[in-house]
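Troubleshooting entry. Yesterday's outputs looked truncated, so today I'm pasting the complete records for two proteins to confirm everything comes through intact. If either block looks cut off, that's the bug. Protein one:
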Amino acid sequence: MTTIHMFKNHPNRKNIKFVVLPLCHEILRSTSDIPMNVFKLMDIWNSEETEKYGITFDWSLIFLNSKPELWILNTLTDIKRR
């Protein structure tokens, strides 16, 4: 949502590649910080609502894990990334 609001009026937004980085996530402070199913997220953020601003997201880094649905667990437990 932040990306959409920051770039929705940018004159070159259609030429910017917006890559979703699994390493960037909120700090887990409550149960509401556990993300929803990644496929549902992709449906929401690649919807007509976001596309009307000419913004599309590249989710390819999420699929580097063998199970994309567990991306948050891989991010939190990958010691090499810290």
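Protein two, checking that the full record survives here as well:
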Amino acid sequence: MNLSDLRQLTTLQFDECKDRAVKRVERHLGERPTRAHFQRELGRLWTVLDLLAVIVFIPALLISSIHIVTHVGALSGAAFDSLRQASSGTVLGRDLFVAAHQWLLIPLAEGSMILFLVMFGVSRDGWRRWTYFLLAALAVVFVLAANLSSGLGLLESVLAPAFTIGIGLKLEHLILQYLKRSAEVTKKYLEALATWEAATTDATAHPDYRPFLMNEIWAALMKPKTNQWAIEAQPGFKVAAVLRELERENWTHGAVVPQLEFNAEQPAEEVQAPVVSIPFGNTALLPGDREPIAVTASANGHGGLPMPTN
């Protein structure tokens, strides 16, 4: 098989191949992608072990909360006695002042501990990441201090907050896994959306455009009876034939327009035109030429223009 024996496409046929490739890309795109298209049926984050952790976490949290209520109640009661309030505007009673500190500090301490641990695991910014860790450690210190002031033994006081913190770390791990899965879905969705938007604006920018175009070019090459001897050609021959057709546009991207230098004192007919290469066509007319110059085949397979001589 010889590639030179394969009849090339006309410009009209080549343009028709591009039009068909664009239409195939548009059909392939379909509707605008959504996040739901990238959701995957993955294993559950929660297992039977987590159910056991909940059974342990609830009593541990209740006991730790009772110690926090007792500890904070004593401190807030003493603080209210020394508090100087205004006689007008919003005036807090003793019961409201003490109860607010007792019950609101429970989610503030326990919840912030888990929150800042999650933010510590998610963040990659150096100083901000360690700030989250320090805030989580501050919450842990408060919970331990409140339980140690309960009047129970050291082991009994530490047991409930230790289990609460331990199971809180497990909860922090589950939250991180959920955020990781969500981030992966978001990444794939945004990549597909960017590809879809680019292709709807310019179908030739879609990754499938070039394969579609190459298929269409080969199909068009095989339509004439004079080319059907190459239907069973090897893949390398097919690629070479298609790339030869694609070269009709690619060569212009690197073409350099020759710049002619003119001397005001030199007659126009003495200006020499440089040698240029013209891949397609058989005649060319350069500035300063009076007649078309015949293009002859050069050693590299392209037409060449000889340097005019006086």
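Both blocks look complete. Sanity check on protein two: Strands lie at 277-278, 283-284, 293-294, 296-297, 303-304.
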